[in-house]
Write the structure tokens for this entry.
Amino acid sequence: MNILILGSGGREHTFAWKISQSSLCNQIYIAPGNAGTQQHGTNVAINPMDFEAVKKLTIDKNINLVLVGPEAPLVAGIYDFFKKDADLQDIPVIGPSAKGAQLEGSKAFSKAFMAKRNIPTAGYREFTQATIQEGLAYINQQTPPIVLKADGLAAGKGVLILNDVEEAKMEFSAMLDGKFGAASEKVVIEDFLDGIEFSVFVLTDGKDYKVLPIAKDYKRIGEADTGLNTGGMGAISPVPFVDEVLMQKVTQRIIIPTVKGIAADELDYKGFVFIGLIKVGDEPYVIEYNCRMGDPETEVVLPRLENDLLELLVALAEGKLNEIDIKISEKAATTIMLVSGGYPETYEKGKVITGFNKVTDSILFHAGTKQAGDDIVTNGGRVLAITSYGDDFKSALAISNKNANLIEFDKKNYRTDIGFDL
């Protein structure tokens, strides 16, 4: 099979790495890819949002399956684009329809979806410019922290947690006035949930589902979860506090109602459901849905998956997911993100990366890199994910930390304490 992976980050490098191990795989194309993905296939310099360019590539390279990494093409309807085109409609796209992708693309849509099925989540109300005065009055009645969420996609920046009512009112008004562009034309105000977060990844063909390895990521830039939020500084799998009792609650109260809701609402969903959860006391609540795999969680989830990923995706596309048993390694996996100095604020690109040949017992997943002549240079805020195995996450973390020290580039930054709170 010829496979097309859309995207350019660590998630997409991990997909390429895993699929390249499949006996079903002939050739992998990654659009646009990075310096790491080219180890497993051919990079093609096209934008995943340019659907006509994706179509041409799909036809020219006789692509048999398309795996969509990031959320933006899914929310924009790439699945529907393929289904409506006579030349493309028989080629499976792994990901939901545009309507299904609203589980991530619209906070209000996902909240209504959960409310309809009594899926546990924070209480909420939604507001627009037309109801701004009601929103301000509602904030006045709240006890901080106050959670404000832009309804649409805001590149991971559309969630604000504020400890002051007046500041919350100011930010609420700014959001409705266009702080996050069209993404915050509608704002959801949520109750604050205090607990510990983890992520569950479900593969579904719209009727059946399989649960992939559980993970926990770390978003803050600084040690001990301090400083600004990032796209993710590291992750671990499995998660020590997610025991059978908690997972049974997640399955019965969240996963099964979610999959049944997808079917009942005819969302046409063949792909990943990333469920961001928080454990409050002993009870799980949904923070958010994503319509794709997470990053950097993918870099610990797929290394622990012992199945042939491509075989899984083919079964998914054919509606035969129920015929596959998921096999998960007993080993733990940890990943540490090396990031550019200044990230998640202003940072420089084009820094030469060295030390690759010194790393022998970790997997290096490229996130923001590119080839520049004979050199590999930084090309993003998050640069490299260093994934290691261990008997537990602490032993895996020790290996990742050792190798993080061996990779060098100007102003390199990373966290040494992933899993510190467990």
